[in-house]
Amino acid sequence: MSAQTVAPQARRQRGFNIEKWGWLFMRGSGVLLIVLIFGHLFVNLMVGEGIHAVDFGFVAGKYATPFWQWWDVLMLWLALIHGSNGMRTIVNDYVTHEGARKALVWAIGLAAALLIILGTLVVFTFDPCGGVLEDGALWETCLALGK
């Protein structure tokens, strides 16, 4: 009778698997980012007067509507989380010292969180009339808005 070798069964991990969810997030966010970025580029560069129309007034007009505020915030959040998750993966793959790896992963997370908070504040608190002087180009517009 010959001895058969049986390959060991792979153990199934129970609970939350962050690497699996990170992998799935990268695929989903990548597809969504393509739509968001190309939509952003199309509206900013192709519609109307194209690149020549992009100035402070153009951005102020876009950020006057919640649709474009949320579009840009979603693009910002996904891009930062997508990029920081990719950097986390690279650090986990190539940094061998445990302390350095933990410090770098924390630094990446803190930088991403800070940029997400600051970017979100800029988009939602943007006031085109803040600091506009009487001889400024936007003075008439701000008067019409009652600001």
From TrEMBL:
Keywords for this protein: Heme, Iron, Membrane, Metal-binding, Transmembrane, Transmembrane helix
GO molecular function: metal ion binding
Gene3D superfamilies: Fumarate reductase/succinate dehydrogenase, transmembrane subunit
Top-level taxon: Bacteria
CC per GO annotation: membrane
TM ranges: 21-47, 67-83, 104-126
InterPro entries: SQR/QFR_C/D, SuccDH_FuR_B_TM-su
Entry protein name: Succinate dehydrogenase hydrophobic membrane anchor protein
